[in-house]
Amino acid sequence: MLFTEWIQEVYTSYLTAIYEMADPRTAEWLLVKSPLYPSLILLCYVYFCVNSRTLTARMPAYKLRPVLILYNLFMVILSSYMVVEFFLTAYLLNYTLTCQSMEYDSSALPMRPISSGEPTRSSTWSCTPTMDLVQLDHICSSIYGGRSILQYCNW
Fold first, then answer.
1. Coil, strand, or helix at residue 63?
2. What global pTM score does this model have?
3. Is the distance from CB of 85 to CB of 117 less than 8 angstroms?
């Protein structure tokens, strides 16, 4: 097999996995319809992690403690809400702890956990808390030899 044929096969497999095997219920969601958007977000994240020292060298320190407290409170409330939604829906649909078959039903109840409790919207964005600033700082400092990005903030 030639290298170009191998590349063509990989590309065909990629298109099959991304577009043909995708869940049709989430096809129009903003960050799901194409792998381009999450890839761009990842590249921006890596850029800011790599260049954080040069980007923040001339910036004044900000007092972010009240903002972080509100943000963390909001994340706890949102996470609690999503856990309640998940368990309530799992109970109502009689989910088990063993393997569950995939449901492609787009009615309100099966779509409830992934649409954060608003199944009536036609195009829903899934709100999931990813990480807070301290976790982000821990990841960046482990990558860049213990240098903390939080040292630029006045706590």
1. coil
2. 0.50
3. yes
For residue 119, give Cα distances in angstroms to 17, 40, 114, 137, 140: 26, 28, 9, 35, 37
pLDDT at 153: 47
First to last CA, the chain: 60
The secondary structure of residue 60, as a DSSP letter, is P
Tell me what pLDDT residue 53 has.
87
Q: In the chain, what are the domain boundaries?
A: 3-152
Of 75, 49, 67, 50, the residue nearest 130 (C-alpha): 75
User: Which residue is listed with tokens 């954080």?
Assistant: 52
Please report, for residues 61, 64, 132, the alpha-carbon distance to residue 117 in angstroms, rounded to integers and kept in the order given. 39, 31, 23
Block residue for tokens 């030899």: 145
Tally of residues, the chain: 155
* Residues 94, 100: Cα–Cα separation, whole Å: 10
* 31-57 residue pLDDT tens: 887 888 889 999 999 999 999 888 888
Q: What is the distance between the alpha carbons of residues 59 and 37, in angstroms, rounded to a whole number?
A: 29
- Does residue 7 have a pLDDT over 80? yes
